[in-house]
Structure formats: C-alpha cells, structure tokens
Amino acid sequence: MTDAVEHEQTARCIAEAVAWHTYLHESELATTPDFEGWLKDPSNAHVWGQMVSVWDFIGEQAREPELVSARTKALMAVKRAMAQRRAPWSWRRSALAAAAGLLLVSGIQFYNWIHRPADYVTGFGERRIVRLEDGSRISLDSDSEVTVRYTRYTRSLHLLKGQARFDVAHDVERPFSVVARDRKVVATGTAFNIDLTQPNVAVTLIEGHVVVLDATGDAQSVPLAVRKAPVVELHAGQELVAANNRASVVKDVDTKQVTAWVSGQLVFSNETLSDVVARVNRYSATPIVIADANLADEKVSGVFNVGDVPGFLEIITQTLPLSVSDDHRGVITLSKKS
Asked: Where in the chain do CATH 3.55.50.30 domains reside?
C-alpha cells in the first residue's frame, strides 16, 4: 500500500468516526447494528478510540459556535445518507467533507486546549514551589503569577506579577526564557531571581549564565538600532535593574540576601524604612503605613521572618525614633516619637 493510499484511507476512516460520533450523540443512541459492524474493523476501532478521547478533552468547548455549526452540517449529511439506506463506508463525498470539517474544528479546539499555557498563582502571603516537567523549579513569592508554555523546542515563561526564583534544568537545545514586563531573560541551565514588586525590573543571577534583552525580540531578530535596550550578559552575583525605556544598571549584590524570601526571611542592609515597610506589607494582611514623611528615609538593617509583623515592629521601635499605633481597623501606623 502506498503512502498516498494509506493516507486517504486513514482520512476517510477519521471522517467516518466523527460522523458516527455526531450521529449517535445527536440521536441519543449508544450504538446501532451498522455502527457495530463498522467498529469491527481494527483500523476503525483504533481511530474511534482516539477520536472519543479528543472529544472528552474538548468537553464544554464542543458547544462553541464553530463546533455547533460543523456538527450540525455533519449530522444532516449523515441523516441524508442513512435515509438513502447507504452503508457508512459508501457515504457521499459531501457527508465525509462535513465530517472532516467537524474534525478540523475539533482538532483546532483540542490543540489550543492542550497547548494552553499553565498558570501558577500565589495568594496574599502565600509562597509556592512549582516543579516543571523537565526538572526545572519555580519558587513563587507572595501575590505572584507566572505562566509556563513548553514545546518541543522552547521553554517559554511569563512572570506577570510578583517575584520568582527560577532554577533551570540544563538543556542547550531548548532555551529557557522568562518575559518580565519589557525584558526577556534567556538561559539554558542556571538559577536566577526576577523581582517585579518595585517599579523597576530586577534580575539577579544566582549561578550560571543568562542574557537579558528586550522582550519584543532577541539579539538575532531585532536590529541594534531599534532595540529598546541592549543585550546584557549577567555573571553570578550580578543584578540588572531595568526601568522602562531607560538604560539598565548592573551591580554586584549579595544573592543570599536577594533570595532570602525563598526560605521565609527578609534581609535588609541599610535600606530606607519606606522600602522595608513595602516589602513587609507583601506578607501581612494588616498594612503598615508611615504617617511622618521624615521617617521614610530612616535606614534599617536586620533579618526578619516573613509575616512576623509583631517581631518586625518590636525591633524597629528599639532602633528608630518612632512609635506604633494600631487603630484596630486593620491599619498599623508608624509616627515619629515625640
């Protein structure tokens, strides 16, 4: 049997399977003698099993307008053929074409369903570790969201909000990329952290090697003259801070401090009280506000447990000239001590 003949027979068998499924479903029948006879052919039985699995996956999407229209056309063609007492395998070309049309629409819906990106989200104060199919791992911070789409040749992710650490399984032939606002981080096997909790995008390389480029393209496809930002290579211990439409800044950082949140700690080294409070608020249902603007630039250093607001307040009241008040309405206020 030539490939062309085999392909034609397979296509015909698939179209017949879809037509049979449509007829039985719309007629509210479990089976018919003609259908049982058709199913005795091993090729038909194999295709029938595959088609039913696809239909089950589609589920409610089978009610989409495109599917309803195609299904109706196939049903009408089948009913005309049955009324003419034609055997299923000798249906007219129009019946097979209608059934094939239904299969095509169903296939598109199924393809979109099975290739949809996986979405991972954390709630307020929640942290989560996601293990991916290739062995890579995502650590999600509080109030964060990332989508993951794996294909045969790419590993494409999109950090939509919050903060995440990515520990990437090595695969030279399938780069691992993460889009974060207007930046795209590309790696093959490495570990890095992306922070979107501030106005600027912060990419910290923990180990390995990554390049950071404009999210609308890569070094090969986008001419240098039209790129929003140049390609930046990071080495372990470096952090890139990128603002929209501005030049990015690369600096050396303490990676253990940057990623301390993964183990449930917040580490600050001579940072402003306003920045520290903003970080602490990400893990607490009771927000802290600074009532006196003169306090905002006070410097804070220390190690705090995520979500431990009482412990945080106890320490800063011992080191800074401020007082704490709780109005019992869900807000904690920091004021300059008189």
From this structure: 264-336
CA distance 173 to 69: 42
For strand 201-207 and strand 238-242, is the pairing parallel, antiparallel, or unpaired? antiparallel
Opening angle at CA 313, ends 310 and 317, nearest 5: 145
Residue 170 DSSP label: P
Its CATH class, for the domain covering 118-256, is mainly beta
In this structure, how many other beta carbons lie within 10 angstroms of the beta carbon of residue 133? Answer: 10
CATH number belonging to domain 264-336: 3.55.50.30
Q: pLDDT per residue over 89-114, tens digit each?
A: 444 455 555 555 555 555 545 445 44
Phi-psi region of 74 (alpha: psi -120 to 50; beta: other; left: phi over 0): alpha
Number of residues that make up the chain: 338
In angstroms, the CA 109 to CA 99 distance is 15
Q: Which of 213, 277, 276 is nearest to 240 (CA)?
A: 213
Nearest by Cα to 34 from 78, 98, 72, 75 = 78
Does 150 or 43 have the greater pLDDT score? 150
pTM given for the model? 0.65
Q: Please give the backbone phi and psi of residue 283, each rounded to the nearest 5 degrees, phi first.
A: -120, 10
